[in-house]
Amino acid sequence: MPKEQLEKKYYLGIDLGGTKILSGLYNRELSFLGKNKKRTKAERGYKSVLERIVRCITELLDDFDVQLGEVAAVGIGSPGSITRDGKVVFAGNLGWKDVSLKKDLEEILKVPVFVENDCNIAALGIYHHELKGEPENMVGIFLGTGVGSGIIINRHLYRGSHMIAGEVGHMVIDLFGEKCNCGNRGCLEVYASRRTIFKKIDDAVCKGEDSILVDMVQSQGKDFSNLRSGDLLKAIRAGDKCVEKIINDVADYVGIAVANVINFLDPDAVMLGGGVIDALEDYIMPILIKRAREYTFPGIPQTLKIAASKLGDDAGITGGAVLALRSSLGKSC
């Protein structure tokens, strides 16, 4: 390892999402030291989000008495399509188009920054930390503000010829379906993201269906878009048939998408993550797995692993730290 690299003790992993920014601090062995979180507030625009990323980082470093000069590199996962030089070409959930995220962050932080798609980063974290790099091929599918995936082939991150591999959320499952923010119609994301789950509940309530979430919204003085994934589980446990039906539909759609991915790529493991899965794992995973097994091609072994990741929110920041370490040393991911 180069001398200047040895002098740098820390790596930062950043998970930039449509609703929150999470920063994680790691040492040279990629042992987790601590994290910090901020709301993204994407509606304020790119420059504001950039400032919030920097603040999320500096607050974390301050908590651990770490100077920016001690940080070897930063790895950040951003929604959307990312170029090889760290530009975000399009991120619908952030309202971004053609922004130079790597360049702008490096100018502010004076530290090497490496940018990847957020789902690629999360898959990288699960693969290296949770699965210890053992499977030869793995797919991670993530249900949060949007729906995305990351693909590991031959133990390396597969980005595709144009850096957009893994957009499973924009797999069209209904030619005449609702319009997605990517511009297409009937994408999986329209049927399975947290944002659209709450929209469907709101629509059902407007049509006269009952849901205990109405009382929750009214008591908090909010609307459905401000509720969290954990509220869905509370509703189901309380016997909310409206929410239960919508989540059952989500499980079916995602289970079929998992089967399609398995039939196409034949991986060793499919790992599920994101806020929706984290909150609803015990309820949604049995339905999802059952549906996926029903639609997989004959010959796919029952031993193929389909499971929820245990890393939760930390998948993205862990993968960001892996990206930061390996890329700063000139190693591929």
Task: Please supply descriptive tags for the structure shown above.
333 residues; alpha/beta; Nucleotidyltransferase, domain 5; 2 domains; 21% strand
> How many helical elements?
11
SSE arrangement, N to C? HEEEHEEEEHEHEEEHHHHHEHEH
- Could you name the CATH class of the largest domain? Alpha Beta
- Order of strands, widest sheet: 3-2-1-4-8
Give the class from helix and strand content and strand pairing. Answer: alpha/beta
CATH topology name of the largest domain, in short, is Nucleotidyltransferase, domain 5
The domain count comes to 2
Provide a concise account of the structure shown.
This protein has helices at 3-6, 46-63, 101-109, 118-130, 188-192, 194-206, 213-220, 229-237, 241-265, 275-295, 314-328, and strands at residues 10-16, 20-27, 32-39, 71-78, 81-82, 88-91, 96-99, 113-117, 138-143, 147-153, 156-157, 269-273, 305-308. With 333 residues, it is an alpha/beta fold.
Task: Explain what this protein looks like in three dimensions.
This protein has 11 helices and 13 strands. It is α/β, with parallel strands linked by helices. The chain folds into 2 domains: 3-124 and 314-328, ATPase, nucleotide binding domain (Nucleotidyltransferase, domain 5); 133-308, ATPase, nucleotide binding domain (Nucleotidyltransferase, domain 5), CATH 3.30.420.40. Strands 3-2-1-4-8 form a 5-stranded mixed sheet. Strands 11-10-9-12-13 form a 5-stranded mixed sheet, sandwiched between helices. The chain has a 3-stranded antiparallel sheet with strand order 5-6-7, with no helix packed on it. The longest helix has 25 residues, at 241-265. The chain starts with a helix and ends in a 5-residue tail after the last helix. The relative contact order is 0.16.
